[in-house]
Design a protein that fits this description.
Elements: H1 6-16, E1 24-28, E2 31-34, H2 35-50, E3 57-61, H3 66-77, E4 81-85, H4 90-100, E5 104-108, E6 116-117, E7 120-124, E8 156-162, E9 170-175, H5 176-190, E10 198-200, H6 210-220, E11 224-225, H7 235-244, E12 247-252, H8 254-260, E13 276-279, H9 286-295, E14 300-305, E15 315-318, H10 321-325, E16 339-343, E17 351-357, E18 363-364, H11 368-374, E19 380-389, E20 395-400, E21 404-407, E22 410-413, H12 414-422, E23 429-434, E24 441-446, H13 451-464, E25 473-477, H14 490-498, E26 504-506, E27 513-515
Parallel strand pairs: 1-11, 3-4, 3-5, 5-7, 10-11, 10-12, 12-13, 13-14, 24-25
Antiparallel strand pairs: 1-2, 6-7, 8-9, 9-18, 14-15, 16-17, 17-19, 19-20, 21-22, 23-24, 25-26, 26-27
Length: 517
């Protein structure tokens, strides 16, 4: 197909299926929404947006049902979606508004409408239809039929912001063509999932992993049941809600699942309908898979990989017992249809991953230097990640390129050390860094906490690694903090242990050990 508006039409076809469907689309403690009501409310708002300007729109909200209404209204009207969370600082929202070029904000939460959001005029997101014939202040009748524009495949569907290396918001734009291609791929992943029950709503909408949850639900006309991050640590409360709504499909980072495993009721006895768990955003460890299979016998676990710049994820694979027996880390799988992965050079072995094809996004807003470096050609993205491929077409992620350090004349890749530690029994996750004094390595482990356990792991690593690669200082903890995207907060994890119990000291030759003072 050569038509420049095919992507928008394919997305619109998904939305059109909502009309008249009375089934539940969304559940949140602040209210629920049927597919029919989602269709009607989004259509009304889309008509208003299409008749009032053309710039990007900030959607200011969290997990309320109004967020999905605003999302579809923007998508239908060609107004680029820029999600911002309610707990974002005002200054950061203003920065995001400035970088994105947003001209309007939609307040997608209950409560009083703020006068402005990020110095932008704000509209409320209405759920119920106003009285027939009522006219908005902008002159659009409440019962007006949507007059929606044709939208080019290359137009920006959404922009997500990360902090970037400077701490300033970095805007990453994804096109309608990218999004339609992702939705097609999500449909193929659905083929192996239980078509009943509900989809998890674990992920914040400013984090693109949430698109798995949204499109799984919309393509199968199933409900999303969304826990609120205000009480994300109240696992018992959310478990009961997932049980009551018959959760069958779970999406999250590995760290969030590890957090839920703290509650022994997170098992097949409480969630007997849970069929599939899909992970994205972090390294999936063998330890986590083993624990999940012990709690949920027969559980289908899917591992995925991909940067935000390439529309959520670009690979997937169902994890099987033989992957746990393999000496290598868990695979990330082959690329999805329409996307190609390759090494940066023609040589075999570990190299930078390059992504090419339909998943590659539009790139960075207002940052031509970064754009030229990361997107050297059309539909091509340099990931900055190390990777390799086996003879079966499965790829393996080996960490970030920028984690190589130099210590006492030796070059050391911290990714290799962390991967080796994750492969040791009892280690749920690991962070390795260079001590601020620049003279020794430190290892921070999630799982083992006792002095003897840490000494044993240090000795074990010393049998497999050269002496200069064995950290001298070892810390252990059984708890961790997550960031806003439910990933392991590596910085806070390290800070917590630095200020807690003393480290265990492992001598370089690993022949003798003493506890650090």
């Amino acid at each position: 197909m050569t038509c420049a508006v095919t992507a928008h039409l394919s997305l619109r076809a998904v939305f059109d299926r909502f009309a008249g469907h009375t089934g539940l689309a969304y559940w949140h403690e602040d209210g629920q929404l049927s597919y029919r009501d989602l269709h009607n409310a989004a259509s009304r708002l889309a008509a208003r947006l299409a008749g009032n300007g053309s710039g990007p729109v900030l959607i200011h909200g969290h997990k309320d049902r109004r967020f999905l209404i605003a999302y579809w209204a923007c998508l239908l009207s060609g107004r680029t979606i820029v999600p911002v969370e309610l707990d974002q600082r005002s200054e950061r929202i203003r920065q995001i508004a400035r970088v994105s070029g947003a001209t309007l904000a939609l307040f997608a939460a209950p409560g009083s409408l703020p006068g402005r959001v990020g110095d932008l005029p704000a509209w409320p997101v209405e759920i119920e239809a106003p009285a027939p014939g009522w006219v908005h202040v902008d002159g659009i009748a409440s019962d007006a039929a949507p007059v929606l524009p044709e939208i080019r495949d290359t137009a920006a569907a959404y922009v997500l912001f990360s902090s970037g290396t400077t701490g300033q918001p970095k805007g990453i734009a994804i096109s309608y063509g990218n999004l339609a291609d992702f939705a097609d791929w999500a449909g193929t992943l659905l083929a192996g999932m239980d078509p009943t029950g509900c989809i998890s709503g674990n992920v914040r909408y400013c984090f693109d992993v949430s698109l798995f949850e949204m499109w799984f639900a919309w393509l199968s006309l199933r409900p999303i049941v969304a826990p609120d991050h205000r009480d994300i640590f109240n696992i018992r409360k959310h478990l009961d809600r997932y049980r009551d709504h018959k959760l069958t499909t779970w999406v999250s980072t590995p760290a969030l699942a590890l957090h839920w495993l703290k509650d022994r009721r997170f098992d097949a006895g409480t969630l007997p309908d849970l069929h599939t768990m899909l992970f994205c955003g972090e390294v999936l460890t063998k330890s986590l898979v083993e624990t999940l299979w012990s709690r949920f016998p027969g559980l289908r676990i899917i591992n995925t990989y991909g940067p935000t710049e390439c529309t959520v994820a670009v690979t997937s694979i169902e994890i099987r017992p033989e992957h746990l027996a393999d000496s290598r880390p868990l695979p990330i799988g082959p690329p999805r249809t329409g996307t190609r992965l390759r090494r940066a050079s023609a040589a075999s072995g570990l190299d930078e991953l390059i992504i090419e094809g339909k998943s590659v996004g539009l790139g960075y807003l207002g940052d031509p230097e970064r754009q030229a470096s990361a997107f050297p050609a059309a539909a091509t993205y340099r990931t900055g990640d190390w990777g390799d491929c086996d003879g079966m077409g499965n790829w393996f992620f080996a960490g970030r390129k920028d984690r190589e350090i130099k210590l006492n004349g030796y070059r050391i890749d911290l990714n290799i050390l962390e991967a080796a530690l994750r492969g040791i029994d009892g280690v749920k996750d690991a962070v390795v860094d260079l001590h601020p004094n620049g003279k020794q390595l430190r290892a921070f482990l999630l799982g083992p906490t006792g002095r003897d356990a840490l000494l044993a792991i240090g000795r074990r690593l010393g049998r497999d690694m050269a002496p200069h690669m064995v950290p001298k200082l070892w810390y252990g903890a059984d708890g961790f903090e997550m960031n806003a995207n439910s990933k392991l907060d590596r910085g806070r994890f390290v800070e917590r242990m630095e200020g807690g119990t003393p480290a265990v000291y492992v001598e370089r030759e690993t022949s003798g050990t003493v506890a650090a003072e």
